[in-house]
Amino acid sequence: MRKIFSAIAIILGLAALVVGIGQRTVWAPPETLTASLEQPAAAPVTLLESGIGTVAGHPTEITIKAEGKFSASLVRSADAEAWVGKAAHTSITGINAEEQSIEATSETGEKEVPNPAGADLFQSTENADKTMTYRWTNPDEGSWTLLLAADGKAAAPTDVSVTWPGDTATPFSMPLIIAGALLLVAGIALAAVRTTPRNGSKGGGGRRSAVRSPATGATPVVPAPKDGPGTVAKVVATASVLALALVPAGPALASGVPADPSAVSTQEEPNTYPVVLQKQLERILGEVSTSVAKADKSKNAKDLESRTTGALKVLREGNYKLRNDDVKIDGPAAIDTSVIRSAAVPTDDGATFPRSIVVVTAKDSGASTIPTALTLTQAGPRENYKLAFATPMLPGSEFPGIGVGDQSVKLLRDDADSLIMTPKQALERLAGYMDDPKSKHADSFAENAFLTLNAKDQKALVDANKDAKISFKRSVNTKDTVVVAAPDGGALVSGNFTSMTTAKPKEDGGTIGLDKTTAKIVGVKDTKKGIEISYGEPMMLYIPAKGSKEKVQLVAAEVVAKGAKLLK
Questions:
Q1: Using a CB cutoff of 8 Å and minimum separation of 24, what contacts does 523-528 make?
Q2: Which residues pair with 73 in a beta bridge?
Q3: C-alpha distances in angstroms, 316 versus 111, 221, 297, 330?
Q4: Calpha distance 100→118 (Å, rounded)
Q5: Cβ-based neighbours of 72, under 8 Å, separated by 6 or more
Q6: What is the pTM of this model?
Q7: Cα–Cα distance, 120 to 287 (Å, whole number)
Q8: Distance (Å, rounded) from C-alpha 287 to C-alpha 376?
Q9: How far, in Å, CA of 485 to CA of 408, rounded?
């Protein structure tokens, strides 16, 4: 039996050593695993969801290959869906780690889209030629998507492979090696031990004499010593069998078993996010500023198309026309976005459009520098932000200090009733007050140097023209109104007035003389019928929250000459 136990221990020891060492060499799991996408139907857009950014908690390396140049743009998932719209696209949604395959679906639809590279909707864009290696990093909370496209007409890249670290752990390798070594040593030692009979007798041909029990006559069994080699062999052999029973039949799995989703604690994410992030906003403002500066230099209205809209576009077009006709008026103030003083960026719970943001910028942070209040709007997901207002702030006015990401900043309607008056009412009452300083709504507005000067200039014009009937009439261009909620419950309102100043002779046959600028516009020096001069007046108001005892404040304002025409 001793030899049998010895042989078993040696065999088990060698087996344990082979398996233990093999797990670290020939059976070792791969250090990296790769999943590839089978080529689906060609489409102008490929969407990579954030699910491919990690596998079993490990970050992945994404390799994208194409036949030529392409772009990869990171965007919020809801915005990506809105941008794609009805276009054909391929969606790569995740990775099957066990099968080492990429999960993807294809949708048919429109075969062409605009080139998305560098569009304002995207947080960032990377350009590549034939190949790109990408590591996923979400710039903010929420769900993000990587949008791939060539030029919008050619097929988007779909040759995508994802590589991640394999599970190289071999937890049983070292215990097997140790157990194998111990078994091998024990087996060899057991084979070398010689057993001597207890009484030392060598008679009877070397056979032990049988002792009969006087009670039963049966041959008694003499137990082996507790510390004898037989006991050691049995214990070691049993331990070896148990150890081998725990050894997996094959190499360790490349990826761990997915955790039970119900056992994983999740933290509820906020359901609203800023429509642009800080770096994204800085990029947009820089491009807008450069584009408008180019148009101001060329005085070509066509150069305004890409980055302006609404009141600003109309007023600048009028200014260019007058100056191109040699009318001596000042050009529009330059827009400098070097320093962002405050940024009212609304949060959104989905991809809703149009969007608007209100920003205060300046050329520097100096206390004497007059900041400019800007309002930008984005009509749809495939449109870039366009500048609708750029109005200098008024002396003594205040703009709430707001940072990108403030959850309280949202877009409101012009009939919002959470304020001391609706934005629509505020603009209409302000227009009436500017027409007539004795308006019944005069007390609704805080004292302001601009409003005081407006009243003074209008009175001076009337007093200087005793023989003329002069009237002032302002109307609100409601389609230009933008309302953004402020953190304190109030709201910032961008509005635009069309102001008409009409002058007629008091008596038939009377004559109204015109200044040089107006005369140049209409082509005559005086008129017997009268004249109508139009101005654009972009405004920004702050309306306090309902229940506040504060008054509506005029934050920014400007008067821009639009034109003049003779009355008939």
A1: 524/566, 527/566, 527/567
A2: 125, 147
A3: 38, 116, 12, 11
A4: 33
A5: 64, 125, 126, 128, 132, 134, 146, 147, 148
A6: 0.77
A7: 10
A8: 12
A9: 7
Cis peptide before 354 (omega within 30 of 0): yes
* Alpha helix (H) residue ranges in 367-492: 423-435, 449-464
Strands 58-59 and 101-107, bridge-based pairing: unpaired
Return the DSSP state at 531: E
Over the stretch 454-496, which tens digit does the pLDDT of each residue have? 999 999 999 988 889 999 999 999 999 999 999 999 999 999 9
CA 414-416-422 angle, to 5 degrees, is 70
Report the alpha-carbon distance of residue 96 to residue 534 in Å, rounded. Answer: 67
Q: Is residue 23 helix, strand or coil?
A: helix
- The neighbouring-strand residues paired with 101 are 36, 96
User: Is residue 60 left, alpha or beta, with left meaning phi > 0 and alpha meaning psi from -120 to 50?
Assistant: beta
Quote the CA–CA distance of 17 and 240 in Å, as a whole number: 11
Q: Residues near 561 by Cβ (< 8 Å), separated by ≥ 6?
A: 318, 319, 322, 329, 517, 533, 534, 535
Amino acid letter, residue 502: T
Q: What DSSP character marks residue 304?
A: G
Q: Give the DSSP H or E segment for 561.
A: strand 560-566
Q: How far apart are CA 180 and CA 10, in angstroms?
A: 8
Residue 373 CA to residue 394 CA, distance in Å, equals 10
Instruction: Provide the 10 A C-beta neighbour count for residue 405.
Output: 16
Q: Kindly provide the b/e burial profile for residues 356-391, where b requires at least 16 CB atoms within 10 angstroms of the residue's own CB.
A: bbbbbbbeeeeeeeebbbbbbbbeebbbbbbbbbbb
Residue 173: its H or E element: helix 173-192
pLDDT tens, residue by residue, 490-504: 999 999 999 999 999
Q: How much is the average pLDDT of 184-201?
A: 62
pLDDT in tens, 267-281: 444 578 999 999 999
Are 187 and 181 in contact by the 8 Å Cβ rule? The answer is: no
Question: What's CA 266's distance to the chain center, in Å?
Answer: 21
Measured distance CA(72)–CA(61) in Å, rounded: 15
Residue found under tokens 């009377």: 510
- The four Cα atoms 297, 299, 304, 308 give a dihedral, to 10 degrees, of 80
**Phi and psi (nearest 5°) for 376?**
-120, 145
pLDDT the model gives residue 2: 67
Q: Where are the domains of the chain?
A: 1-28+170-188, 32-165, 278-566
The two tokens of residue 167 are 């599970």
> What count of residues does the chain have?
568
Residues 6+ apart with CB under 8 A from 108: 41, 88
